[in-house]
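Exercise 7b. Backbone tokens:
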């Protein structure tokens, strides 16, 4: 990585952190580009070299969080033949660690958009879970399978939302609790619904 790339990354990181701080106290529509720049210690000209407007900056932050969440939902074992308690515990730890990397951004988004991000999170989890199940278990798509994963995804999104917003439970405690919940889910192959 050259100096220019590093400088660009640092500038974007400072702008993202400034917006994140401001979103902790007010809604996006009430924040100005000038406030973001002042908080970041960066000129408005520099801001506009990277982003067209504040919503562009916000959208890129959401995309980063969404990508990290999608990554943490990917299976960590090759197929269902390796599925056991240890694999479920590792998967829960993987999910919580991934969420932890973008926890502050997720917290701000959950608090500040009237439920829109929670719906996006639920849809993201559903899409990833369904995709994983179809390839992981070798099943076929069906209404019953979709309903199974709608239910599971809403529960996972609610779990993540409560954990992020309420705090209090450390990362290892959240991972252990999520693993116990996942282990209590129907142990049968969900593709049986297809």
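Sequence design result:
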């Amino acid at each position: 990585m050259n100096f220019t790339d590093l400088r660009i990354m640092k500038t974007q990181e400072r702008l993202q952190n400034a917006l994140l701080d401001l979103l902790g106290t007010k809604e996006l529509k009430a924040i100005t580009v000038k406030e973001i720049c002042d908080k970041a210690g960066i000129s408005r000209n520099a801001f506009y070299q990277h982003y067209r407007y504040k919503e562009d900056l916000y959208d890129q932050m959401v995309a980063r969080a969404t990508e990290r969440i999608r990554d943490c939902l990917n299976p960590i074992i090759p197929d269902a033949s390796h599925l056991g308690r240890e694999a479920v515990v590792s998967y829960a730890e993987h999910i919580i660690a991934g969420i932890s990397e973008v926890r502050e951004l997720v917290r701000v988004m959950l608090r500040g958009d009237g439920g829109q991000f929670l719906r996006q999170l639920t849809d993201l989890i559903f899409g990833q879970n369904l995709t994983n199940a179809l390839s992981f278990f070798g099943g076929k798509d069906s209404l019953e399978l979709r309903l199974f994963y709608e239910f599971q995804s809403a529960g996972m999104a609610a779990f993540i939302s409560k954990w992020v917003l309420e705090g209090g439970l450390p990362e290892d405690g959240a991972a252990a609790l999520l693993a116990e919940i996942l282990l209590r889910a129907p142990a049968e192959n969900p593709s049986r619904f297809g």
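Instructor comment: The CA atoms of residues 40 and 144 lie 49 Å apart. The two ends are 48 Å apart (CA to CA).
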